[in-house]
Amino acid sequence: MPSKNEKEQKLKTFILGALIGALGFAVSSCATAGKDSEASPYYEASYNDHNRAPASVAPRVAYSGSENLDPLYMRTQADYHFAMGESYSLDGRHEKAVESFKLVQIYDPESAHVSLRLSAEYIKLGLVTEALDQAEAAVKKDSKNVDGRILLGGLYSSMKQYPKAVEQYQLVIKQQPNNTEAPMYLGAVYAEQKQFDKAVSYFEALAKNEDYATPYLAYYYIGRVRMDQDGLPAHKASEVAFKKSLELKPSYVESVLGLGSLYTKMGQEERAIAAYKSFQRERGPNQRVAEILSQIYMEKEQYDLAYEQLEIMEGTSEEALNIKVKMALILIEQKKYPLAIEKLQDILKQVPDSDKIQFYLAAIYEETDQKELAVEHFLKIPASSQFFGESIVHATYLLKSSKKTQEALQIAKMGYEQRKDIPQVYAVYASILDEVKDYKTASEILKIGVEKFPDQVQLRFFLGTIQDRVGNKDQVVKEMKQVIEMDPNHVQGLNYLAFTYADSDKNLPEAEKLARRALEIEPHDGYILDTLGWVLYKKGQYQEAIQILEAAQKHQPAESIIAEHLGDAYQKFQLVEKARKMYQRAAETESDDKKVREIRAKISSLEKQDMKLQKQVRIPASVSSESAPSSAPMPTEPQE
């Protein structure tokens, strides 16, 4: 591709050749583009030598009495700068194009066409006020310039200066009664002002105009105007207009889209779907119709049908990558993981640095228990990505669950060091430190996190749990109270504070209130049921405690602490055999050796208690079986 300097040098060389050729022509033979010219547009000077400045703009400037500027010089300068402006515009360098066209105005100040070109460039730059000034200047220089008035009307309309817009379009119609652009724009202006009948009258006139080559457009606009109105009669008229448009041009996609939108607005979505499907079937696959149908089908969770429409879009859409991503997400939703992986890998070939695709792919590997691949892809996500925090969390969890605790610790530490602006990295780093029993460092990390992110409730909750690890109960209570103050429905905070009170035999009425409030939020949570049961146990309400703890044990049968608590409640209620079974279950599910020894000690204590009870209920040998009252039952353990 030629460089900027090469392009400009090529233009200069071409224009120089044009100048040499122009020397053989008299000035009077040049085309003009002055105020009175009606048909003298600029041509692109890079392609021909017709683009000469008009002779009328060759001013006479006195230098030493009677010297004149060379009119040929003035004309060629206008040619050169106009050609440069066109070149810059084609390259999308609109600021440079503006500069060049403004230079043309120095050498040809009366050209309406140059003002219009400037106006167009200002529009591309979003400078509406400047565009308006140039369009007004163009019309002032050439009052018969139809293009100028059309453009000026459009600018007035965009600025909601509707009376001025109407004035320009009506002047065009007055000047050119057969003009078909101005009536269309007039209809649009009146529609914008909600003057629907007036707008429709212009479009209907266009539809009947034999000089109007595209009457299907007029009916389309009628359909749009009537659709914007309320009431069944207007909607019926809209339906008729859209169908007429399609009758005149069956392949006009805007009309079927309008018809479908109308049906949707009327609450007749099935008719809309039928219209879209009919168009796809009869007129061949259409990307825009496919886009709408795919969205409808996805909302209805009809993923196979949505996928078919996305396949239509995949090969033709300018956003093919986004389409592929949607297709991959559908495959994930349908749990078609191998196909989803294949689709995502295909996307990565085109955009290998896409962090989003890496994250989706890693998530699928995690879902399908391919832990090593999942970690590999999570760790490919750069620290600058919005997915980085979640990736560190997932990678750390996967390594931890694979018993690779030290690797997990390294990844968590790396995440913390690289992105201290993400709350999750504090939590995941502290959780691994907790795992390796480095409570001091975990506490320090969380204190920094809480200070940096004071609104992060979960960080504060986690800090409270770490304080519990080191036996700082007062700090636990302080942090959990803060958590509940920040979020009154924080279930974990409510439960933890209630359990802390119960375990310390403090504030038991308050502990019961906290546990019951947590249970209202999560009525089937086994851990909350355990907390409430434990509170009741500490209050001496053993029978109710048993009921609650039995429910907790059903929800969490493999949780050692719940089984132990239930065993304690059974023991207090003298259900010795039941207590023994629960203690045995607690010992089997407990992983901490010290805790296992404590539970075994309870079992031993029960056995001693059972032996003592048996001695107490033994019948003296002096009492014969015949003399024992037949109706008196032998004392036994309460029946289950």
Q: Would you write up a description of this structure?
A:
Helix 2 runs antiparallel to helix 3. With 640 residues, the chain is mostly helical. Among the domains are: 1-142, Serine Threonine Protein Phosphatase 5, Tetratricopeptide repeat, CATH 1.25.40; 522-609, Serine Threonine Protein Phosphatase 5, Tetratricopeptide repeat, CATH 1.25.40. The chain is 70% helix and 0% strand. Mean pLDDT is 85; it is low at 1-67 and 619-640.
Overall spatial form: elongated
**Largest β-sheet summary:** none
Backbone CA Rg = 42 Å
Helix content: over 70%
Low-confidence runs (pLDDT<50, min 5 residues)?
1-67, 619-640
First and last CA, distance: 91 Å
Measured by DSSP, the beta-strand proportion falls in under 5%
| CATH architecture descriptor name of the domain at 1-142 | Alpha Horseshoe
- Number of strand segments: 0
Q: Which properties best describe this structure?
A:
640 residues; mainly alpha; Serine Threonine Protein Phosphatase 5, Tetratricopeptide repeat; 32 helices; 0% strand; disordered N terminus; disordered C terminus
